[in-house]
Amino acid sequence: MKEMIEQRYLFLGVGGMGMAPLASWMSQAGYLISGYDASLQESVRRHLQASGVHLYDLLLAEELDGFDQIVYSSALRNEHPLIRAARARGLNCIRRGEMLARIARGKKLIAVAGSHGKTTTTGMIAYAMRRLSMDVNYILGGLFTDPLLPPAQLSNSPWLIAEIDESDGTIEQIDPELTLILNLDWDHADHYREPAQLEATFRDLVARTRETVFLPVGLKIDVPDTAKLVFYDSHGEGDFNQANARAANALLGYFNADVPDHVLSGAPGLARRRGLLLDTADLTIIEDYAHHPTEIAALIQTLKQRASVRRLVVVFQPHRYTRTLHFKKGFAETLAAADVCFLLPVYGAHEAVVEGGTIQDLVEAFSGQERPVVLDAGLPGVRRILSFVAAEPTLLAFIGAGDIEDFSAAVVSLFLHPEGRVAGACRHFLERRLSKETLVKENEPLANKTTMRIGGPARLYAEPASFADLRQLLKAAKLFDLKYFCLGRGSNLLVPDEGFDGLVIRFSAPVWRSMRDLGEGRIWVGAGCRLKELCGQAAKSGLSGFEFLEGIPGAVGGALCMNAGAMGSWMFDVVERVQFIDATGVYQDWPKESFNFGYRKVEEISRGIALGAILRSREPEEEKSIRCRIDSYASVRKESQPRGSSAGCIFKNPEGSYAGKLIDEHGLKGLRVGAAEVSAVHGNFIVNQGGATARDVIELVRQIRARVHAASGYELEPEVLLVGREWSDVLNPEADV
Questions:
Q1: Would you place residue 723 in the very low, low, confident or very high pLDDT band (cuts 50, 70, 90)?
Q2: pLDDT in tens, 128-172
């Protein structure tokens, strides 16, 4: 055990409902625990940090060398780049269940197992033992609805209560002291191809249990040693929660024969288990994690009683294609008990599409009855549900184990912020999903956030404090059909006078402006790091090759998107790898060779979001000589570029010439529209002389292009980005700007 504690552990997928409590308990117990999760929820982050888990915002493969052991969620496949990188480095990689089994070997384990209700029952037992002042360790598989109750607790007791998950087979490594089995239904068809395999797994668990196994009356498990079996009554009036309570009481009776009847009264629920999202006179909205026909049947029976005279409307999202394939008939039969049923597309988790397991296959299973409507998973689907439930009093239930919780939250947010207030609804949706360090505003002015000091407001504006917060912002933008635009220092762009009708994301938080020395002339820089700061830090570290960046008035993210250049050098001259979110929303970490980069554009990054990059110095050099080169470049810039408010070079250099030279040759320096003026210092700069509008700049761009083309035949193309619009739409003299 001492050797285990001295090792350094990294939890990949630490935000998972099984991973976070285990990481929290181990950290409390003195283990050196770090964690990384690209989709970390804020509620989970708070518990992890409170227990001392070190969290990475963005984890590079190079940083895996600092760990001895990798613990990964079963939701991550072996093809995950960080798991592949860890194995390539010879690191031991184990699943969450295997780590739990190792921890449990030093304890008297109380294993809570079964197909349904494990998390709720484990939570009930943990809550009751706390209330009875019984000293015990516990590790849940979810979060209490009470944010003050931790999902894991360390104590000096030899007893450990833990939910044991059968889904990935790691249950086979568990050797409990006591086992509480709740029920047994064939599930997880991706792992157990037939019911007999699951039954054998539970039979072996009973055989490995050293002392007592608690079984519900009526559940038959064929085991040689029946002396260890104790049966409890889980039947009677009521639903799964009452059955779970009877199971919890049976286990508690082992430790205390006089358990008060009221010990579970006031027990908090578990997140996503019949959670109440909204309750008005005409509309009640709940969500539940049920994802198996047996669970859904019991839930709908309870909901129909609760709905009373109101109609019961269910929105169901199937979880995994294999489960949909095997249980689609059962889903159809149970969901038909609702008054109205809608479906969301299958949440595939890690699975590829399976023939016979698609959402259309489930729709067709509703034979002989009205088939459900499949909803769009975004704003159109949200609006359709709200329109439907407005017709009459309704109990609306969102059921499923995928990302349906986001869809249900969007429905609530838009209900509270009626049509026309999508930005307000989006902001409401984000309130509990973002860290307190992330800033979110509506109608935020953008002019003062650009180097040109021009432009109207952003409909919604955010400064994410972490990668996880960024992911939440992008998820919200997709759900509420908001365009998004990423802002660094605000150079090389022009914001229209009407602003941006969407979400502006600015990378100004410390995490995006950080730099990490990776050794051997390599540094990692965040997308929000100013190029001038990067240049200075490189010089201080004796790394040459970055001097050309000194005078470019931008940040790393923008420089990566457009392969920024100066003094004969380009950003991709010093790039080794880039971390970015691609056009489909997937995180990528690509080497330089994988990109199509050229003059003023890197196709793959410009369609996505740059997060940061690993840069490599050409060669080490004395700081003094690097500084001399920086000063020389700075002098050239001061002499050749204006100091007024501008966006940088306004036009790309056409093939065979230079934009500034053409503008100068044709006498356009000093040309002015309103307060926008062609610089007298450098013809390829338009300067805001005070009070210029985007309309002024666009008209000036039109005139410059027309006169240069008429005199020389060259067609100048704008280099500056027109935020939210296309230059091709406004350059026509007849266009409305």
A1: very high
A2: 888 888 889 999 988 888 888 899 999 999 999 999 988 777 888
* Structural domain count of the chain: 6
Q: How far is CA 347 from CA 81, 147, 364, 403, 564, in A?
A: 22, 27, 18, 7, 40
Domain with 434 in it: what CATH number? Answer: 3.30.43.10
In this prediction, residue 736 carries a pLDDT of: 64
Name the range with the highest mean pLDDT among 414-423, 516-525, 687-696: 687-696
CATH code assigned at 8 = 3.40.50.720
Q: Which domain holds residue 220?
A: 107-264
The answer to whether 719 is a known catalytic residue is: yes
pLDDT at 239: 67
Is position 735 within any domain? no
Candidate list 341, 426, 561, 649, residue with the active-site label: 649
Please tell me the distance from the alpha carbon of residue 731 to that of residue 737, in angstroms, as a whole number: 9
What is the C-alpha to C-alpha distance for residues 379 and 245, in angstroms, rounded to an integer? 39
Q: Are 429 and 448 in contact (CB under 8 A)?
A: no
Query: Pick the catalytic residue: 287, 295, 405, 719?
Result: 719
Among this protein's residues, is 707 annotated catalytic?
no
Residue 408 scores a pLDDT above 90:
yes
Could you give phi then psi for residue 665, rounded to 5 degrees? -60, -30
Whether residues 118 and 258 share a domain: the answer is: yes
Query: pLDDT exceeding 70 applies to what percent of the chain?
Result: 98
User: Is 649 one of the catalytic residues?
Assistant: yes
The predicted structure's pLDDT at residue 406: 93
Nearest to 120 by CA among 318, 298, 289: 289
Residue 496 and residue 519 share a domain? no
Residue from 722, 654, 729 nearest 686 by CA:
722
CB 512 within 8 A of CB 709: no
Do 333 and 428 sit in the same domain of this protein? Answer: no
Q: Which of 471, 600, 616, 695 is catalytic?
A: 600
Rg (CA), the chain: 30
Angle ∠(428,431,434) on CA atoms, nearest 5 = 140
Q: In this structure, are residues 90 and 32 in contact, taking their beta carbons and an 8 Å threshold?
A: no
What does the pLDDT average to over 702-727?
93
Q: For the beta carbon of residue 70, count every other beta carbon within 10 angstroms.
A: 21
The 10s digit of each residue's pLDDT in 593-619 is 999 887 778 889 988 999 999 999 878
Last residue within a domain, chosen from 478, 510, 542: 510
Same domain, 284 and 372: yes
Of 70, 100, 130, the residue that ends a domain is 100
Rounded Cα gap, residues 348 and 352, in angstroms: 7
